[in-house]
Amino acid sequence: MIMQSEYGKILVLGQSGQGKTFLSKTANKETTGFINVSRKPLSYRGNFKFHGKPKTWASFMKNFRDYVENPDIENIIIDDVTMAFDMLLQEAQKNFKGYDIYTHFNKNVPDFLDLIRDAKKNVIVTGHDETLLIEGFKQKRAKIHGKQFEGLVERYFTIVLYTGTKVVNNNPVYFLKTFEVDTSAKAPHEMFSEIEIPNDAQFIFDTVKSYYEDTSN
């Protein structure tokens, strides 16, 4: 059996209505752990065997840890992290005051990001982007509250993709961009052969697995 030497941590960024949830349609419904932070119905028919709908930050983290440790789950999709951060902040605002709000927020965010980085599974995380001023230049980055992690979320991911849309034969087509000027898009060298790739979770999982396969044995 060929094992992966490394695991892909993929961040998919874009605004609402650009296909971030829809990319999960192609994922294996029996072996993919899907964490539905918004708890909304999927945008397509079908469902996942492992489908979490956490209502609190603590249950979200437990859901994620359980999926990381579950041997029946090969890959994980979190949809979406911006709403998870919103949930964490709302809980902090309810339970703390003043500086303690962001002290609590900033304490919990790295625990989540470290768990992603250390997980021995491929993980796709969707989220919203925002435009920031980075070293004097405007650039799209992952949206997050506060200043401590502003512009820095991407360093926990090996792959950052941005959503794109176009119209083909009067129908909307979603795709992902591996590179775009003035964004934090990135991917390992030669992992993807095109700048525009399918909005397809299983395509991403398969590509990452093939790239990191350990063929030394």
Count of helix runs: 4
Biggest pleated-sheet summary = 8 strands, mixed
CATH topology: Rossmann fold
Poorly predicted segments: none
Helix content range of the residues, please?
25-40%
Order of helices and strands: EEEHEHHEEEEEEH
Our estimate of the beta-strand percent is 25-35%
Overall radius of gyration: 17 Å
Tell me the structural class. Answer: alpha/beta
What does this entry look like structurally?
By secondary structure, the chain is an alpha/beta fold. It has one domain (9-211): Rossmann fold. Helix content is 27%, strand content 26%. The protein is built from four helices and ten strands. The protein has helices spanning 57-69, 81-95, 99-118, 201-211, and strands spanning 9-13, 32-36, 50-52, 75-79, 122-127, 129-134, 137-142, 159-168, 171-177, 196-198. It has an eight-stranded mixed β-sheet with strand order 3-2-4-5-1-8-9-10, sandwiched between helices. A hairpin with a 2-residue loop joins strand 6 (129-134) and strand 7. Helix 2 packs antiparallel against helix 3 (99-118). It is globular and about 50 Å long. The model has no long low-confidence stretch (mean pLDDT 94).
Give a nutshell description of this structure.
The protein is of the alpha/beta class.
Keywords:
two-stranded antiparallel ribbon, 10 strands, Rossmann fold, globular, single chain, alpha/beta, eight-stranded mixed β-sheet, 217 residues
